[in-house]
Design brief:
Length: 374
Amino acid sequence: MTSNLKTAFICDESYFWHNAGGGALYEPASKYVEENGSIETPQSKRRVKNLLEKSGLMEKLVQIKPVPATDTQLAYYHTERHIENVRRISEVGGEDCGDSAIVGKGSFEIAKLAVGGAIEAVKTVMGSDDVRTAYVLARPPGHHAAADMGNGFCIFNNIAIAAKYAQNVLGVKRILILDWDAHHGNGTEDAFYEDDGVLFISLHQELLEPRNRGYKEDTGKGAGKGFNFNIPLDAGSGDAVYEYAFEQIVIPLADNYRPELILVSAGQDGSIFDPLARLMLSAEGYRSMAKTVKSLADKHSEGRMVCLHEGGYCPVYVPFCSHAIIEELCGQKTDVSDPFIYAMAGTPYKRLLSHQKAKVDDIKSFFKKDGGAL
């Protein structure tokens, strides 16, 4: 790849205006639980944008405005019933369109813009001569959203619709969707479970939300059998575990599949500071994953790679994880370093412990035996 290739950055102020609801909108666990608001707030994403501007990295990116997705594009994956339900709720706000997926007033248009940002990113990297990578900093996130309902803060499935756009409109035959969010990408898995045109790989904390999803035994169905791979990792897994899982499973699967386009559900809730998971990734761990995936894109898909922001709920640390990812995408290094890495001293986040290695080895062995993969 030549060094003059550029990275697109897609964001819009309205993404930060989506109201994911307050604590009073959910069934209280107890009468003694004081309202605290939704943990899916704009702060972590807004601070990503602020850090990019403060560091000067934003000047190196090609900023592209998102265009709202059409109802036809939403229907690539979602049912008319779900689309109309979100539209209805959005007129007044404050209802759940599924399971923990609050639609605020005006959120229908914002969610359409989030999907549109993902589509615009795919359109750009597939059609541009000099922009091959993109980062979409959108809210609401998408990878939990099912065809007929929202789930886990996700209203519409941004990455699934973008992948179907690539298939239906651009004629892309082989797409790798890599989901490194701490929570399993159940909605995305459902979208392509019987489709060999998408290789779906999810690395996530085992037995975390959503319940009863993300098992290694779920390897696809029909034409999609052998194209769906879940890598459920133990709580406490850090940089070294992810590096080993990439080496042993992700890279070989991608090399066998040879994708024409790589899409990443880039959730950063696997960090050691996140309140909704118990993984131990550092900002440098996210940098390493981005570097590895970019090398796969350079090898197989002419560098075409899109990262879509998903989860990540520690507002002071998510920006440094995102910044590291975007530095790798655009090949630019700034003077930004991880100011919180000192707090991880003494933890085993950079060590591959014996039970962690055994876990990955067991998953790899199962994939080889079950579907002849790897």
